[in-house]
Design goal:
The complex is a heterodimer of chains A (168) and B (100). With 168 residues, chain A is mainly alpha-helical. Chain A has two domains: 117 residues, Up-down Bundle (Four Helix Bundle (Hemerythrin (Met), subunit A)), CATH 1.20.120; 39 residues. Chain A is built from seven helices and no strands. Chain B is 78% helix and 0% strand. Classes of the chains: A mainly alpha (168), B mainly alpha (100). The interface between A and B is large, with 65 and 56 residues.
């Protein structure tokens, strides 16, 4: 049984520290790594809040897809003054590396321990947070929203491809 | 015991950090990441309320925010790359004309 107070404070302080780093870092790449730490710390908090599916999507979509896209663009646009050596020589970035490592270890520790041990023991409706309930909600109460979002993604896809043309 | 208030305060702090980053930084990529930070703060608030009120609708809303964030990043970064082709710079103070 993990102490729930400690669990909250560890990940809350991690997310705030990493958030500060995100907005204060001089270079864009370490800033992106700070944002990654925020995402992972928040995913851990979502596990605690009976939202395992959101936690998985937080890691898969935010950390896995959105942030990788941002990192690709940073690498693509990296200005000559922003060489990797300069970034690697900065001590505060190493501190962030330690923070990110601790955050990942915490998430893995929680994952192996089992989510049921860390969620709050508050009385909730049967099956709360269960992925099958998401499916039911998507295709009943939120059907219109779901369709609108699918159109939005299609428009974003077409817009993204159009904007990347050689001659705009 | 972490209560709803704890989560509201944490979420507000993260949102505030995102706002400060957005208003003070000049690197367009860091502005993007500040926006992501704000979106994440809102997500945390939605999930916390969903948990403490026992209503799944909040978690479903987070999915829609994921989709909007993905669309925003895809289009936003494409615009940034298109701008970068013209000015060779990601400093937003250089983006001061609407047409080249």
């Amino acid at each position: 049984m993990i102490d729930m107070d400690l669990y909250f404070w560890v990940f809350a302080s991690m997310s705030v520290l990493a958030g500060l780093f995100t907005i204060a870092a001089k270079d864009a790449l370490p800033s992106a790594m700070g944002l990654l730490t925020v995402f992972i710390a928040l995913a851990s908090l979502y596990l605690h809040l009976h939202a395992p599916l959101i936690a998985i999507f937080q890691v898969a979509i935010y950390a896995g897809a959105i942030l990788i896209l941002v990192v690709f663009v940073i690498m693509l646009l990296m200005t000559p003054g922003e060489r990797m050596g300069v970034i690697q020589a900065n001590a505060s970035y190493r501190g962030l590396g330690v923070l990110l490592g601790l955050c990942l270890i915490g998430l893995i520790a929680v994952g192996t321990k089992g989510v049921s041990d860390i969620v709050s023991m508050k009385a909730l409706p049967q099956g709360f947070g269960n992925p099958s309930i998401f499916g039911d909600l998507f295709f009943s109460d939120f059907l219109l929203h779901f369709e609108v979002v699918s159109v939005l993604l299609l428009v974003a896809l077409i817009g993204g491809i159009y904007l990347c043309k050689k001659r705009l | 015991m972490a209560t709803l208030t704890h989560y509201i305060v944490l979420s507000s702090i993260l949102f505030g950090l995102g706002t400060i980053g957005f208003l003070t930084r000049r690197n367009a990529l860091i502005l993007f990441m500040s926006i992501e930070l704000m979106l994440n703060a809102v997500n945390l608030m939605l999930v916390a309320f969903s948990n403490f009120m026992g209503d799944m609708a909040g978690q479903v809303m987070v999915f829609f925010i994921f989709a909007v964030a993905a669309a925003e990043v895809a289009v936003g970064l494409a615009i940034l790359i298109a701008l970068f082709r013209h000015v060779r710079e990601v400093d937003i103070t250089r983006f001061n004309v609407l047409k080249w």
